[in-house]
Structure formats: C-alpha cells, structure tokens
Amino acid sequence: MSKFNIKRVKHFQTAAGPRFYQVEGFTGLFPSVTTVLDVISKPHLAEWNKRLALDSVRESFISAMREGTMLPDGQWLDGTLKKAGR
Fold first, then answer.
1. Is the pTM higher than 0.70?
2. I need a labelling partner for 6 at 20 to 30 A (CA). Which of 18, 23, 49, 75 fits?
3. pLDDT per residue over 20-29, tens digit each?
4. Where along the chain do its domains lie?
5. Residue-wise over 61-86: b if at least 16 C-beta within 10 A, else e?
6. Which whole number is the average pLDDT over 2-13?
7. CA 25 vs CA 9, 29, 33, 57: distances in Å
8. In this predicted structure, what is the pLDDT of residue 72?
9. How far apart are CA 73 and CA 75, in angstroms?
10. Chain-centre distance for alpha carbon 48
11. What residues form DSSP beta bridges with 85?
12. Pick from 53, 47, 63, 59: which is nearest to 84 by CA?
C-alpha cells in the first residue's frame, strides 16, 4: 500500500479567466492560488516594480556617461524607460 493518498484533480477555467480545481473525494471547486491572490491588493509590488525600473534607468544612465560615447537625451531616456518597463 502506498504511503501517499494521491487524489485526482481536474482543472477548470472560466471564460473570464479564473481557474478552479475539482479534487477527488471533495465536493465543490477550489480556486487556484493565483485566482485568490488576484483579489488581494498588492501596493508594495507596484512600489517594488517602480524601484526596479528606476534602478535600471539609473544604471543605464551611469553606463552611458562612463562610456562617453553619447550624452543621454530625451530619445535615450524614452528608450531606456521603455526597456525598464518590461
């Protein structure tokens, strides 16, 4: 006999996108972890993302100035901000 009690799980996705799972031996559907987390406010993630983007711009600016091959201008800044936003 196996020491693990493995259940069969069926995956469902609604037209709107949320995912649910049906687990053998249980009634009803269980929401996926990402479905649950999507309803929780995450303001710190937005701040973290902004800091990452600004750090990327800062590093690109310092690198461009050290190389001395170009002087950062509006076009350079727009391109760098676009890359940092990825």
1. no
2. 18
3. 888 888 888 8
4. 9-38, 43-84
5. eeeeeeeeeeeeeeeeeeebeeebee
6. 76
7. 10, 11, 20, 53
8. 62
9. 6
10. 11
11. none
12. 53
